[in-house]
Amino acid sequence: MKVLTEERQQKILELLREKEILKTRDLMSLFDVSESTIRRDLQEMEEAGWLRRVHGGAQKIIKLETEMSMIEKSSKNVQEKKKIAKYAASLVLPGEFIYLDAGTTTYEMLPFLKDKKVHVITNAVDHASLSLDLGLQTTMLGGSIRLTTKAAVSNQAIEQIKTCYFDKAFMGTNGIHERYGYTTADTEEAATKKAAMGQAQHVFILADETKFNKVNFSKMGNLEEAIVITNKIGENIISDEIKSQTTIKEVDL
Fold first, then answer.
1. Which of 70, 112, 203, 218 would bridge with 226, disulfide CB 3.0–4.6 Å?
2. What is the pTM of this model?
3. pLDDT category, 71, cuts 50, 70, 90?
């Protein structure tokens, strides 16, 4: 099967999750490409630190970024998340329909939206509960709930999203990378996030500095598909390649 370089390398990452060693000839057959193409892929992925090239193929050397639970995430970088959330909420106009993705930073937006009379659509149980407590009009998407993120991720949720239109979507992510874009830990969650991004007029990724130059298991979008809101961070954390592909708003309130 003929696929783009990015898609091919993403598939190789998926295969590495299942196997310790991949053979060059098997990858050539799978993707219907030349040996030089596979060698180039493996070289680039080795340079990114995801595998080690061995004779006749490649070997997994590290695990991809693992996902913490909502409780674990909520205790990390609390002040930075509140700053990011406050700024993100300031972009919301009264009466707008907004999508709030599951995540601790998007959750922190809700108190700042209390008086804006917005309609919140979300796939996150905790978000929907707090939104209702604040008196906001709220729509909770249905489907299977992930234990780690307490988010509805399923074909049912995606089909609901496709019937909606959002003025703005505020998304969480596990990783931001110059080549692999925005990624998250679960394939179904990535599909749900991607669907929401596609239904919004404006998309914002809320992420602190720990998310940059990281890659997780499943891609949810390309860098140019969203504006990134992050905390004020030091030099050399955000690469020029990332900056060239998207707008980065550093918040220092």
1. 203
2. 0.73
3. very low
